[in-house]
């Protein structure tokens, strides 16, 4: 049997996707540590408060994921101080066992990263001053441990110019497969020198029957994109929003070694079965 570190830390890389994470309260320290403990790479969606603190939060307001009071729940994060955000519980809505979790500030997580060179972190850009982010990265020397992700090539390029050591990932939505394929083709035909990874979203094809390729984006297109990226020295990452063993096995058989998943623990169990 292949050893754990050979499978998950060297062969297969996976991101614990936050916005749809079904196992932990998203964008919390609990979720970050959970991914690291499982051998994966946590993701943090990043925004900036009015007093300049970069925090982990997907939405523009605290309404969905915290117990912010009615008077504050619809206020933009960019108009709130970090002290205000810290007053609200970011775990209780997910489950009572997570009561007390708070919206994390990125500097705290960077401190931990700086002490553990083997750990990595995805930063999914929402609304942050990139120069402030670059300054914070430089302060803790964690550039090589970071993957900056966004769906705008321009923002990835801007981050790469500010901190060349940071890896950049362009994610491309797959809800409309023709749009995904057109966007990906345009990137491959253009200048991709400021990118390190391209992520394709794999959304279920509702008409697919058991035993068939599960996703809307054709399997042949995924395989061809993998080959083209490898020729350019880039990596392909896929985000299968739903998966069974067979689906992950197919992707692994194609040679894909980078994933984003909403169910980290279950994904790790599938990997274990594949490599047994």
TrEMBL record:
Residues 12-276 form the GP-PDE domain. Gene3D superfamilies: Phosphatidylinositol (PI) phosphodiesterase. InterPro entries: GP_PDE_dom (IPR030395), PLC-like_Pdiesterase_TIM-brl (IPR017946). It comes from the Bacteria. This is Glycerophosphoryl diester phosphodiesterase.
């Amino acid at each position: 049997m292949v050893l754990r570190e050979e499978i998950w830390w060297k062969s297969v890389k996976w991101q614990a996707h936050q916005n749809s994470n079904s196992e932990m309260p998203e964008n919390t320290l609990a979720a970050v540590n959970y991914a690291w403990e499982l051998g994966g790479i946590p993701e943090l969606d990043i925004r900036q408060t009015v007093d300049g603190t970069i925090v982990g939060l997907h939405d523009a307001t605290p309404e969905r994921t915290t117990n912010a009071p009615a008077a504050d729940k619809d206020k933009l994060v960019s108009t709130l101080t970090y002290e205000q955000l810290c007053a609200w519980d970011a775990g209780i809505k997910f489950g009572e066992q997570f009561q007390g979790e708070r919206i994390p500030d990125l500097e705290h997580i960077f401190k931990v990263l700086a002490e553990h060179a083997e750990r990595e972190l995805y930063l999914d850009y929402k609304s942050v001053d990139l120069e402030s982010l670059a300054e914070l990265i430089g302060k803790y020397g964690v550039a090589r441990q970071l993957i900056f992700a966004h769906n705008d090539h321009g923002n990835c390029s801007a981050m790469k110019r500010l901190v060349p050591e940071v890896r950049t990932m362009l994610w491309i939505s797959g809800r409309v497969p023709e749009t995904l394929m057109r966007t990906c083709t345009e990137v491959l035909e253009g200048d991709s020198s400021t990118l390190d990874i391209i992520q394709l979203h794999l959304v279920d094809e509702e008409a697919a029957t058991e035993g068939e390729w599960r996703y809307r984006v054709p399997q042949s297109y995924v395989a061809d994109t993998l080959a083209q990226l490898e020729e350019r020295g880039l990596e392909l990452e896929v985000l299968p929003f739903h998966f069974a063993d067979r689906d992950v096995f197919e992707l692994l058989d194609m040679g894909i070694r980078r994933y984003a998943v909403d169910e980290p623990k279950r994904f790790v169990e599938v990997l274990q079965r594949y490599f047994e």
